[in-house]
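Pinned message: reference record for Sulfotransferase
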Amino acid sequence: MVTFYTCSFLKKLYASSLECPRSYDKLRVDPSKPNCRLLVTHDDYSMMSKLPKEKTSVVTILRNPIDRVFSTYEFSVEVAARFLVHPNLTSATRMAGRLRSKTNGVSTLDIWPWKYLVPWMREDLFARRDARKRSGPSSQDIIHNGATFQVAGLTNNSFTAESHEVRHCVLKYQILGEYVLEVAKKRLDNMLYVGLTEDHRESATMFANVVGAQVISQLIASSPSTDPTAKNRSEQSSSVPDFKSDTDHHQIFRTGRKARKISSTKDVEATNENMTVGKLIEAYETCISSLRKAQAQRRISSLKKISPANFTKEARLQVPEVVLQEIKSLNSLDIELYKYAQEIFSKQHKHMMKKLVGADRQESVFNNSTGAPWDILWLSIK
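Predicted structure (C-alpha cells):
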C-alpha cells in the first residue's frame, strides 16, 4: 500500500535523525535516539502498551473491507509468485533465508501480516491446494475482520497475551465480535486523524492540514531562530494552506506533552525550511505518481510467473456475487468499523473546512506552538 510516509509527508516534516528505528517486524529501540519522534510500524494497537499513553497520539487510514481482502490476497500472491523461479518450495525457502541473513534491511517476509501470508501463499502456489485459499486457518486468523482486530490490538502479532484466546472466541461465538468492534470504535475516536483509502485526495489534504500544519509550527517553534520575523512568516505560511484537494491512507502518531530537547537543531531547520502545507501536498503528488508506476511494473513482472493471473479493478468486477457476499459475511465487523470511520472522516472534514473559512484563517488552524513537539508513531493497517 502506498503510504503518506513513503511519499514524503512525514519525511518532509521530520529529519532522519528524528526518526525512530523502523519497527515493521517488531518494536525496535535505539538508545542513541532517545528523543526520536516518528515511529513506523505494522503492529496492531497493542503496541501502545509499550509507549507512554499521555505522550502518544494515533492516526490511521481504513480501507473498504472488500477491497482490503482483495488487495491482501493479490499482494500475497504477487510476492509469493516471485519465488516460482525456483524449482521447488525447499529451494525457494532456503534462498529466501540466505538473502535475509545477508542484508540489514527489513524484508517483506519480516513484516506482519506478510510474514505469515506470503509463506502460506508460496506453499499454496507450489502445491496448488486451491481449497486452502478459501477456508485455510491463515485467512480466518489474519485476513477476515483484520482491520477491526488490528485497531483493537488483538491480531496474532499482538503484545496482549490474551489476544489469541479472545480472537478465537470471537471466531467461535460471533456475537462476541460486537464487544471487539466497540473497542475498535473507541480507539478510532481517540486517534488524532482517521483517513480513508478510497478518499485518497481528500485524506491527503486533510492530513497535511490537520497534522502537517501543526508539526511545521511546532518544529519552527522548537528551533532557536535569531530572526523572529522570519519565524512568524514561516508559521503563517504553514497555517495558510495553498493546497489542491488531495489524499488517502492511515497511520498512528505520538505527541509529547512535556517539551523535549531536539537532538539536532540543524536537522530541524533543514527539514522545515520554507515548508508549507501546499509544498507537502505538491511533494506527495509527485512522489505517488512515480511510486504507483513502479509498483505497477513490479506487479506485472511478478504475475508473469503465474499467467494468466490478472489482478485489476476490472477483473474484480468479474468476481461472482456469491463470493462477494461470503467476503462481506466474513468481514462484518470490518464493514461496521469502516462505516464508523466514514462518519469520523466526514466530521473531520467539516471541522477543517470551518476552520479554513473562519475569521482566523491567517492563524494556524491547529497551532499549539507553546506546547511540546510532536512524537509520531505510525501504524499501517492493510
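Pinned by admin. Summary line: Residues 73 and 117 are 9 Å apart (CA to CA).
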